[in-house]
Amino acid sequence: MRMGRVLALVAGALVLCIAGLGLAVYFTRDEDNLQADNLLAENFTKAVTLAPQNDGKVELPALARFEWDRVLLVQPGTSRAAISQRLGHEWTGIDTVDGGDLLLFVKDGKVVRFADYRGSNTFEGFERPFDEIAREDATFAVRDRVVRPTG
């Protein structure tokens, strides 16, 4: 009988701890913050790195196979306020670790995903600090460690 009470108390304490953790997560979350798409960031970086071996081109629509109509290329170091002003609404994306160029994928005026370039190549020939590129034009040429627009 005594062992049953102890087990019931332990089970009750465990339920309370799990419920407390659940509530802590629920009340401290921020649904408005976008996270970087790490897989897309890694795939884009890899495609840029391997481009000289594969005809020198990176076709962004082939890597980003979700709904988007334009991509906004953002220069590293651009302020959150400047990005918000350019988008026309508050930019709530989480800062990325590597601090490379950002690619904000936009559909109907709203950012649906974003990724960052994590390699050491440079981006040239783009308008800075922002360049807006339509999906059908989002193919980049890579040569001598420099990424350029193809159009």
UniProtKB/TrEMBL annotation:
Can you tell which superkingdom this protein's organism belongs to? Bacteria
Identify this protein by name: Uncharacterized protein
